[in-house]
Write a structure and sequence with these properties.
This protein has about 110 residues and is mostly helical. Helix content is about 75%, strand content about 0%.
Length: about 110
């Protein structure tokens, strides 16, 4: 790749980042969002977190080994569900999940 091509790719990346991240902040500054849109935007972080967790929980190759270590993500997920129901905090869910997962890997 030549320097000219690299400059085009870098410039287009910068334009895309500006259009998708900065422009909405500038255009919507000071305006109230409709309640349904606000409710939909509030669902994005839990949905992203659930997608990341589901990727580890439903790994097809993990159960073929027939080892107890294949169940570590499921065992670590149980306390996370309890913390999620009590606190409704994404931060505490992550802290609990990483702590439980790390502890189970050390056992």
């Amino acid at each position: 790749m030549s320097w000219g091509q690299f400059a085009w790719v870098a410039g287009l990346c910068a334009v895309t980042i500006f259009a998708s991240r900065v422009a909405p902040l500038i255009l919507l500054r000071g305006r109230a969002l409709p309640p349904r849109l606000s409710m939909a935007l509030n669902a994005i972080p839990p949905a992203a977190f659930a997608a990341l967790v589901a990727n580890d929980l439903f790994d097809a190759g993990a159960f073929q080994a027939a080892d107890w270590r294949a169940f570590i993500p499921w065992i670590a997920a149980a306390p996370v569900v309890i913390v999620a129901l009590k606190t409704r905090s994404l931060l505490w869910c992550i802290v609990m999940g990483v702590g439980c997962y790390g502890t189970l890997l050390l056992v």
